Amino acid sequence: MHTEIAFSLIVSCVILFLYFVLNKRTNGAKSLNLPPGPPKLPLIGNVHQLAGLLPHRAFRDLARKHGPIMHIQLGQISAVIISSPRLAKEVLKTHDVALADCPKTFGSELVLYRNTDIALAPYGDYWRQMKKIASLELLSAKKLQSFGVIREQELRGFMNFLRKSSGKPINIHKTITELVNNVVCKASFGKNCKHQDALLEFLDEFGRVNSGFYVADLFPDFKFLYVVSGLRSKLMKLHKTLDRIFNDILEEHDDRKRDRGEQEEDLLDVLLRIKEEGDLEFPITNNNIKAIFVDIFAGGTDTSSVTIEWAMTEMMRHPNVLEKAQAEVRETFKGKRKIIESDVHGLTYLQSVIKETLRLHPPIPMLLPHVCREHCKIDDYDIPVKMKLIINAWACSTDPEYWDDSESFKPERFEDTSVDFMGINYHFIPFGSGRRMCPGMNFGLTTVEFFLAQMLYYFNWQLPDGLNPLDVDMAETDGLIAAKKTHLHLIPTSFAPYN
């Protein structure tokens, strides 16, 4: 993303003569009482203040100077940044309906088949229909429970891999991502996907190009920028890749369905059944189904694997936390050779470790943007129709008004408290809140908790090459998802807690 911001500055000079056109368009906004914000340069607005920085950290630093509600201009895009729990509640609860729409980007329109997924679909009847399908059919409690068998099957293979790797460094990021993706593939299609590597590469690249900070997205009226910036060709390539993968999956799935008889429905079965029944107000097509699976894989694979890697990273940096979490797991399951999924829900300290990991490392630190549908006021400031609003969830979860020693890793802060990630504690919203809250939250949390419990029960862990825990690189990637920039490598050592 840093390259894209630099390119924004260069292109801005080329199109400076268009400033007066843009200036005329924004004159109407001058009569509004917009939130305060940092000084803006002609044409580019505040783009220069993000160059070389991670947006969630840059916006947090700007908010310290200009306030928790802040108006910024990114090229043609006018946006309000929310950086406090109190104001996040106004956006996500008080004015939830008025601010429930999502922005369209060139990338999401093209790759997600005109935003016909769930996460980025425009607010309205189609979105309500698809959200209902997600809640009642795809991610119901019964459906999530049925995936437990898949998780246990995949975990056995992972445990065997770790035993064979005992005493040798392994890439935690790579192995966990493959493990989680295998679970998502089997839950989605009933089998491991031969396109796994291509899917993971697609998700990684799409997260980067759909961050909203590409120059072409900042100047949407100037269509030629999509071409000269190279964004159009990247997105066309991604779209063709996605189409090829899912066309192949649909064809294979159709052939296999004829041979396998009556079995538990996978997620693709569910969507195809709903499509064929034809009872929907808005009939869905194969293209809509492809768009929905982008949501499923992005939410199911990326967020879970990123959270597991960050949790292991923080425990390695804080050996006392690792020791305490491991002691809880081993004492709880003492003498057991096998842990099943229903066993792990009583691991209160491990749950605190996961919460603290999500507090400091929310997978999407800047929640998916909202767009104003109806004029409203937040903190007495005007929020006009079409204004983009972005909640800095990371800034909320590290707000010193709500958290002591807010940027330190202390799982104990969650002991004897009711604070959780259900979207009602606005100083802790790693999955969002309100109408646009992540529908796959429970799927991801179950995966994270179960896998971490197994890793701590059966293995001891150490850093390679005598690395000092405090020297572990904590840099984050840019883009939509804040993963660990340098992959975590650890040495597992087999442990038999049942002896």
UniProtKB/TrEMBL annotation:
InterPro entries per record: CYP450_71D, Cyt_P450, Cyt_P450_CS, Cyt_P450_E_grp-I, Cyt_P450_sf
GO molecular function ontology, one term from the record: heme binding
GO biological-process terms attached to the record: sesquiterpene biosynthetic process
Transmembrane residue ranges: 6-22
Keywords per UniProt: Heme, Iron, Membrane, Metal-binding, Monooxygenase, Oxidoreductase, Transmembrane, Transmembrane helix
Domain of life: Eukaryota
Needed cofactors: heme
Pfam family name, one: p450
Residues holding heme: 438
Entry keyword annotation includes Iron: yes
Sequence similarity: Belongs to the cytochrome P450 family.
PANTHER family: CYTOCHROME P450 71D8, OS08G0105600 PROTEIN
Protein name (Swiss-Prot/TrEMBL): Cytochrome P450
Species this chain originates from: Lactuca virosa
